[in-house]
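so im writing up the methods section and need the Transcriptional regulator record in one place, dumping it here so i stop losing it
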Amino acid sequence: MSARRRPLSLSDSVQAASIAHRFYVRGESKLEIAEAFGLSRFKIARILDTARETGLVRVEFDLPAPIDPALCDELRSAYGLERALVLERAKHRETRPELRRRIGALAAQLLAETATKDDVIGLSWARSVNVMTEQIDALPRCPIVQLCGVQAGMDMRDRSVETVSRLARVSGGEAYPIFAPLVLPDRRTTETLRRQPGIAETFGQFRNLTKAVVSIGAWQENESTVYDSLSPAERDAISKRGAKAEVAARLFDADGNALSTGLAHHVLAISHEELRQVPEVIALGYTRPKAEAIDAVLRSGMVSTLITDADAARDALEIAANRT
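--- predicted struct ---
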């Protein structure tokens, strides 16, 4: 950070304050101000710069959430996103559940503000998505669609079926759940379940989705729903194929390419192609261990909005810079 200049004299301070008031408050152009003061517009520009550098004028952002606007813009520009929401680092040492709650709250606010009665909203299961649904109090009446099956071993309250049902109750819209496991033993079982009326009806809604809220998982232990559902041998085999990230049980390599593995025929979930057709995909990806996965998924071009934290954002941007 550069050192501040020596404080302005009283006379210069008053002049600079008057010029800054005209520019920032009244919205006058530098040319208009220059004519009023009998100075060049370049001199006006230097006075405005000095006013900022000496602290005479301070720019503050009164956002409705603790967002880092600079990182938001960097991420948006780097990956061609429609929007990026980056939470500022907490003032205290933050636990993962605390960060998850802040991420979920921000996602809840965004979805509540942008959803309309014409939307069909898809939800993948993730703890952060679950937290999001707990914090939404009102939503326009619209269908809520489950994007993938239920992870085994989860508490019923945290399962994707309950997450979808909870948001549908808030909305008053139709719920389209998937009452079946996420990972299945073989292709035949997967195809049989997909033909069951209730599940087939939910899968039929994928083509109608207008918004999807998903979580970015890293292909490592405790960072991916699917990874934790597989045997060590299956995990290693998929790792050797180059898997770096997972979204709604679909895998991506480091370049954001959809990864085709035998796993695709063993999961009940929306396909890569169907997910890419969704007009707005809101992805929740946070914590530094997921930075490489966040970079990979953003490279896919599938995500329109990313919600993340400052540390993960900086790490993802560093990865992106090193790859260019």
